[in-house]
Write a structure and sequence with these properties.
The chain has 293 residues and is of the alpha/beta class. It is built from eight helices and 14 strands. It has an eight-stranded mixed beta sheet, sandwiched between helices. A hairpin with a 7-residue loop joins strand 2 and strand 3. Helix 1 crosses helix 7 and helix 7 packs antiparallel against helix 8. The two termini are 25 Å apart. 45% of the residues are buried.
Length: 293
């Protein structure tokens, strides 16, 4: 099983008609990652605190439809976090967030993950907003110590980070507990570090998403690989990076311990999945059957 920890929120996505209208869609980096894993056919559990309001119910309905295990989901009466993306002409998105007093911020550390859990993924807002951020950090440290494959996607949202210097220092403190660090070129620039330094701190591989330029990976052993992006008509890029997380986890967690990683094949699979997500408005990751060709 793969456990994905972090926020589930509602993206209020702008639409062309009527002018100024916003359409609610399920979102949040971890939520999208869990949804994508379920659609790809991976045994997946979502670990979060979700509101009991109507938005929260709709979020859980989406995960149920994808076959995601909800036994680790905590519930609360607080409202659901809202995100309002603004879309650039190329389909890329920037966000404003409404997070005060919302349910996902109050996540607490679960006693244990389900038997048979092989991998844990964390990232995005949940690692920036207290008090939940400390609980997720504790989960990362504990499960890494148990030998789980761990994937971290910082997915930086500058508007939510009050003290960038403190966040960057905290990020470095996570790296000894991370197996695979996945981040965008924008994240890397904001963090201000070097891939070689991050690899020296702990991860076995750093995967970099480069938008229309594709994906690259660098491993602790010094191997480097790149794959191009698939050319598609882009509706928007919402959820594309989260789909990359899911594709990476789906392929990496299936490998027997100690087996070498065919990184070009893994990256090509992730690029294909992300491209399909980009052809659809909002975060709508593909199903396994769509990637079989």
């Amino acid at each position: 099983m793969i456990v994905v920890g972090g926020e589930a929120l509602i993206d209020l996505v702008p639409v062309a008609q009527p002018p100024g209208a916003l359409v609610p869609r399920p979102g949040g980096g971890p939520y999208n990652t869990a949804l994508a894993l379920g659609r790809l056919g991976a045994r997946t559990a979502f670990c979060s605190r979700v509101s009991a309001d109507g938005f929260g119910e709709s979020l859980l309905d989406g995960l149920r439809a994808a076959g995601v295990d909800l036994s680790l989901v905590q519930r609360g009466p607080e409202p659901t976090t809202l995100a309002v993306p603004s879309l650039a002409p190329d389909g890329s998105a920037a966000y404003r967030f409404y997070v005060e007093g919302t349910a996902d911020r109050l996540f607490t550390l679960p006693r244990a993950l389900p038997a048979g859990t092989r991998a844990l993924a964390l990232g995005t807002c949940s690692l920036a907003l207290e008090p939940g951020a400390s609980a997720y950090e504790a989960l990362l440290r504990r499960e890494s110590g148990r030998g789980l494959l761990t994937l971290l996607d910082p997915n930086i949202r500058p508007a939510l980070i009050g003290d960038p210097t403190a966040y960057r220092a905290r990020f470095l403190g996570w790296l000894p507990y991370v197996s695979v660090l996945k981040l965008s070129e924008e994240d890397a620039r904001w963090l201000g570090g070097r891939v070689s330094d991050w690899l020296a701190a702990g991860p076995s591989a750093v995967v970099l998403t480069r938008g229309a330029q594709g994906l690259s990976v660098r491993t602790r052993e010094g191997a480097q690989y790149e794959v191009p992006a698939r050319r598609v008509e882009v509706a928007d890029t919402i959820g594309a990076g989260d789909t990359v997380n899911a594709a990476l986890l789906h392929r990496l967690s299936a490998l027997p311990a100690g087996d070498p990683v065919d990184w070009p094949a893994v990256l090509a699979y992730a690029a294909h999945a992300a491209a399909l997500t980009c052809t659809r408005a909002g975060a709508e990751p593909p199903y396994a059957a769509e990637l079989s060709g």
